[in-house]
Amino acid sequence: MSGPKYSKKQKEQFFDLIDRGGTVRAAAETAGVHPDAAYTWLRNAGLTMQRATPRIYTEAEKAEFFRLLAQRPNVSAVAKELGFPRVTCCAWAHKAKIFTSQARKVNPRREEFLRLRSEGLTRTEARTRVGADPRSAADWDKGITIISRGRIYPDGRVVHYPKATIEGMTAERRTRAIGGSVDLNLVEKIIHPRYLSLIEREQIKDLHRSGMSIRDIATTLRRSPSTISRELARNTVSNRGYMPHTAHRLSVQRRARPRLAKLLTNPELGALVQARLKTRWSPQQISKRLARDFPGVPAMRICTETIYQGIYVHARGELQLDLRKRLRRGRTARKPRKHADERRPRFVDPMKPISQRPPEVESRAVPGHWEGDLIVGASGGSAIATLVERSSRFVALAHLGRDRSADAVRDSLIATMAQLPGALRGTLTWDQGAEMAEHRAFSVATDMEVYFADPGAPWQRGSNENTNGLLEWSPKVGHLI
Asked: Which segments show compositional bias classed as Basic and acidic residues (predicted)?
């Protein structure tokens, strides 16, 4: 009688689960497929499993193994007690030449199995009691002894496994998706739009299976046809066709470019960089000077960022830790940079950006809208606040003297605006200087809304900037006022 027949839908579901990174047995159970059939499908599709990353044991763990082994000379028992693989422990023992001259140890389960069989129990009953698998029970029943590369029969015959069989048993297994063992954080991380995303790869799979041409797929995804062609050719790893999750893991796996840092591979360059850092050269000066001192030697070139990474990234250990204090800023770690939306607000009271300013201000048709800024005199001896009315270009100056604090600027601006009629007190546009930290108090006192220009955009206060330029024509000697 033939085995169960599975539907095409079950097979598609199984491979979809495998593509998404599931285990074979879990995928087979979900799809309602026997594991043997699932493994057969994988072999026929050219997909195999990858050997798990071997565990690295410490010297302390090995020492504990040998300590217990000296008390109880049974590798299997000690391995079970420590929770270590028996094969690993046997390898340690053989390497230490502990069992090489001793006779083969007695297998207690085999002895118990043979005792039960002699009492009349069936093979199945006996192996169930001792917890042995059917193949081992059959070998014990027939008196066969398993050796590393073959079998010894009761009549003394030694049968060695064929070379192809041994290679098939010992060959390193590959992952079903080759890129299966990848950190999920790396898989989910979006680096740059130029890289294909997982969603795009799923679209490629669906469109390609529907019979769409590569150029049509590229047009749909707004990608180059060569990008789609390379993706299909490079990341199709089985006769099941293109599998998007597998392809995405493969791309993540190939993304890494591990290599030794230049400061480690070139001792002469590393010594030169350290020597100049100790004399307080900046990393940029070192980089530029090396290009001039060694014009035809690429090995003696290094970029500024590489020097900074050698200083700040402690794990790399390329430069001495005390060199961090030799930098002109004296920092021992990088200063984190945040996105504009994540930065701490400039002032306690929320600012109103210039984009929220009423439209009539831009037209200059209605008077009463002002632009302001601060001008500091020579050596910071004095300062004035300049105010320019946008419609008439009328200029008002508020004297500050040496005190340029936010409180002083607030009081001076309030006093200046109090001299004007209410019709001329509409809005005030300022830059994001710290002197306007009391902008909310100024608005309450004068009934004028304050709007702040964007950083690095002086043209948004063009009239005020032009006026400041005219006022600064006089030499900055002594006080401005």
From this structure: 339-349
| Domain end position, chosen among 199, 232, 255 | 255
CA dist 125 and 162 (Å) reads: 33
Mark whether 119 and 202 lie in a shared domain: no
Q: Give the per-residue SS3 of 98-111.
A: CCCCCCCCCCHHHH
Same domain, yes or no, for 147 and 215? no
How many residues comprise the chain?
481
Range of the domain at 238: 184-255
Alpha-carbon separation of residue 249 from 121, 203, 226, 449 (angstroms): 52, 16, 20, 54
- pTM score, whole prediction: 0.35
Q: Cβ(372)–Cβ(448) under 8 Å?
A: no
Task: Looking at the structure, tell me whether residues 413 and 364 fall in a common domain.
Answer: yes
For the chain, how far is it from start to end, CA to CA, in angstroms?
109
- Cα separation, 134 vs 430, whole angstroms: 86
CA distances in angstroms from 282 to 46, 273, 308, listed in the order given: 55, 10, 10
Residue the block writes with tokens 């073959």: 150
pLDDT tens digit at each of 481 positions of the chain = 455 678 888 888 888 888 877 778 778 888 888 888 888 888 888 776 554 556 788 888 888 888 888 777 788 888 888 888 877 888 888 777 675 434 455 688 888 998 998 888 888 889 888 888 888 888 888 888 776 667 777 765 667 666 555 454 444 444 444 444 566 666 667 778 888 988 899 999 999 989 999 999 999 999 999 999 999 998 887 777 888 888 888 888 887 766 677 888 888 998 898 889 888 888 899 999 999 999 989 889 999 988 888 877 654 555 655 665 667 676 667 777 666 556 667 787 888 889 899 888 888 888 999 999 998 877 777 888 999 999 999 999 988 878 888 899 999 999 999 999 888 999 999 998 888 899 999 999 999 999 999 888 888 898 998 888 887 755 544 444 4
Pairwise CA distance, residues 11 & 41, whole Å: 8
Separation of CA 173 from chain center: 27
φ, ψ at 271 (rounded to 5°): -65, -40
CA distance 291 to 298: 9
How many whole angstroms separate alpha carbon 238 and alpha carbon 68?
A: 48
DSSP bridge partners of 397:
386
Residue whose structure tokens are 């109090």: 418
- CA nearest neighbour of 174 among 45, 284, 277, 58: 45
